[in-house]
Amino acid sequence: GNGLLSDGTIIAVKQLSSRSKQGNREFVNEIGMISALQHPNLVKLYGCCTEGNQLLLVYEYMENNCLARALFVEQYRLSLDWPTRRKICLGIARGLAYLHEESAIRIVHRDIKASNILLDKDLSAKISDFGLAKLNDDDHTHISTRIAGTIGYMAPEYAMRGYLTDKADVYSFGVVALEIVSGKSNTSYRPKEDFVYLLDWACVLHERGNLLELVDPELGSDYSTEEALLMLNVALLCTNAAPTLRPKMTKVLSLLEGHIPLQPFLSDLSLAANSLSSSGQRRNFWQTLSDQSQSMTAAQASSSNTNESSSLDIAGSLRP
């Protein structure tokens, strides 16, 4: 919900489930991490309340809700010009680069997706929902026994094997970048009957040399083809099936800002395309993720029945 501080500041209040110890763990986890993180592209935490059974977090209010609504929900869709889309993409990259490599505590977010990217009054991007965040212990790999995230944004090695590093966030960022350029949702857009996700179609267009077909038609010709191609190519680099071939977020940011050239990374991009080179391989890959999604849904339902709270989308109350 929303509220007002004594000085007139509008706030967003997020309530976590208090039905289980898991809810309390998530609450303490989120407070501890967010309070230590201060960055223009992270949602600011003002305070907390644990009175009675209430587990509440008080955040800054985001006037323009979330990126998913701005891009995908017809009645709330915003007219985002190319400079704004580029600014949003760069903002997400800066926030992730800070989480992974610049903050005092290194964090893997684990659930980067369009609905967890909030937009302020100036349409600047701020990363929200650290309920799933996992500490990044000096780049050591975490094998997670509790897979948490969103199918369609989850890196394949994490979705299928629980293999978690900061490269999982890099993958998710790549998916969101594709959505920003195209104006289409990765999980609900069906360009052709044979293709399951937007990313699937992007790989095909890359192979054909027609990546610009992905650009949102609402932009018309009013965008930089050079910047759009760069963002699309970087998105495909980030969604490489092999995590070791995905660049770090600081490098992603440097690429997007034009500080380092894309050319040296093009061989990795070719490897990314070849790793899922046939439509049959792609369909099999996405079907595996789909099966994983159904298993996760069943597990969440079972968890709910035993009063365990789900943390798959706990950013909703930060939005107007």
From TrEMBL:
<feature type="region of interest" description="Disordered">
    <location>
        <begin position="296"/>
        <end position="320"/>
    </location>
</feature>
<feature type="domain" description="Protein kinase">
    <location>
        <begin position="1"/>
        <end position="266"/>
    </location>
</feature>
<feature type="binding site">
    <location>
        <position position="129"/>
    </location>
    <ligand>
        <name>Mg(2+)</name>
    </ligand>
</feature>
<keyword id="KW-0325">Glycoprotein</keyword>
<keyword id="KW-0675">Receptor</keyword>
<keyword id="KW-0547">Nucleotide-binding</keyword>
<dbReference type="InterPro" id="IPR051824">
    <property type="entry name" value="LRR_Rcpt-Like_S/T_Kinase"/>
</dbReference>
<protein>
    <submittedName>
        <fullName>Os09g0345300 protein</fullName>
    </submittedName>
</protein>
<feature type="active site" description="Proton acceptor">
    <location>
        <position position="111"/>
    </location>
</feature>
<keyword id="KW-0597">Phosphoprotein</keyword>
<dbReference type="GO" id="GO:0016020">
    <property type="term" value="C:membrane"/>
</dbReference>
<keyword id="KW-0067">ATP-binding</keyword>
<keyword id="KW-0812">Transmembrane</keyword>
<dbReference type="InterPro" id="IPR008271">
    <property type="entry name" value="Ser/Thr_kinase_AS"/>
</dbReference>
<keyword id="KW-0723">Serine/threonine-protein kinase</keyword>
<dbReference type="InterPro" id="IPR011009">
    <property type="entry name" value="Kinase-like_dom_sf"/>
</dbReference>
<dbReference type="GO" id="GO:0005524">
    <property type="term" value="F:ATP binding"/>
</dbReference>
<keyword id="KW-0732">Signal</keyword>
<keyword id="KW-0418">Kinase</keyword>
<dbReference type="GO" id="GO:0046872">
    <property type="term" value="F:metal ion binding"/>
</dbReference>
<dbReference type="GO" id="GO:0004674">
    <property type="term" value="F:protein serine/threonine kinase activity"/>
</dbReference>
<feature type="binding site">
    <location>
        <position position="116"/>
    </location>
    <ligand>
        <name>Mg(2+)</name>
    </ligand>
</feature>
<keyword id="KW-0460">Magnesium</keyword>
<keyword id="KW-0479">Metal-binding</keyword>
<dbReference type="Pfam" id="PF07714">
    <property type="entry name" value="PK_Tyr_Ser-Thr"/>
</dbReference>
<keyword id="KW-0808">Transferase</keyword>
<keyword id="KW-1133">Transmembrane helix</keyword>
<keyword id="KW-0472">Membrane</keyword>
<dbReference type="InterPro" id="IPR000719">
    <property type="entry name" value="Prot_kinase_dom"/>
</dbReference>
<dbReference type="InterPro" id="IPR001245">
    <property type="entry name" value="Ser-Thr/Tyr_kinase_cat_dom"/>
</dbReference>
<keyword id="KW-0677">Repeat</keyword>
<feature type="compositionally biased region" description="Low complexity">
    <location>
        <begin position="296"/>
        <end position="311"/>
    </location>
</feature>
